[in-house]
Design a protein that fits this description.
Layout lengths: L2 H14 L7 H9 L20 E2 L6 E2 L2 H11 L6 E5 L5 H8 L3 E5 L3 H13 L6 E3 L8 E10 L10 E11 L6 E7 L4 E8 L17
Parallel strand pairs: 3-4, 3-6, 4-5, 6-7
Antiparallel strand pairs: 1-2, 7-8, 8-9
Family: Belongs to the methyltransferase superfamily. L-isoaspartyl/D-aspartyl protein methyltransferase family.
Protein name: Protein-L-isoaspartate O-methyltransferase
InterPro entries: PCMT, SAM-dependent_MTases_sf
């Protein structure tokens, strides 16, 4: 067992299992997908710590493993479903969902992050993940993982959900941040808070600056 394999197993046993993550498919994905492949080479030694890892030269970061995997557990991507990771940086979330059997797409508007993702997915053996710079045509998805925090509700992504589709996202900043799970019914999208967590903020969903006299 090499060092990263040992660190990955320790992450699963000592971080994920103690954070209400019990789904076998999610745990198996976290135990198999090499998270270090999605971190910058000089920060790969931090990949299995409980911290977000910045992706230099991009507007993205690798979310903490505890938050990312718990969000995916709540999304519950099923084999054969279409899963989207939005603003996923280097694509770790998409790789996890692909390992769980979903047809995974990474929509990453940030060009430097997208280049990192394309290389990382190959290194991780997850080359089957589709990577796109723009909204994936008229496609719709069963699950959407937003890999960062939003200061405003990401309503622009709701039309991409299929009926009974699920979207999960961190909303808010700092101690006020919480993870919201949205479900699309036949005619509406409703959301509920599922746990408290923070994540790096996505520029696409920052609150517009208010003008002060």
């Amino acid at each position: 067992m090499d060092d990263f394999t040992s660190l990955r197993r320790n992450m699963v046993d000592c971080q994920l299992r103690t954070y209400d993550i019990t789904d076998r498919a999610a745990l198996a994905a976290a135990d198999s997908v090499p998270r270090e492949a999605f971190a910058p080479e000089n920060l790969a030694h931090l990949a299995y710590l409980d911290q977000a890892i910045p992706l230099p030269g991009t507007g993205r970061a690798l979310m903490t493993p505890m938050v990312a995997v718990r969000m995916i557990q709540l999304l519950d991507p099923q084999p054969g479903e279409d899963a989207l990771e939005y603003a996923g940086g280097s694509g770790y979330g998409a790789a996890l969902m692909a390992h769980m059997g979903a047809r995974a797409t990474l929509w990453e508007p940030d060009a430097p992050a997208r280049a990192l993702a394309e290389a990382a997915l190959v290194r991780a053996g997850a080359a089957g993940v589709t990577v796109t710079a723009t909204q994936p045509g008229d496609a719709s998805f069963d699950t959407i993982l937003v890999s960062g925090a939003c200061e405003i509700v990401p309503e622009a992504l709701f039309p991409l959900l299929r009926p009974e589709g699920r979207l999960i996202v961190v909303e808010g900043l700092g101690r006020a941040a919480r993870v919201m799970l949205y479900l699309k019914s036949s005619d509406a999208v409703s959301g509920r808070p599922v746990f408290d967590a923070a994540a790096p903020v996505l520029s696409e969903f920052r609150r517009p600056a208010a003008f002060v006299f």
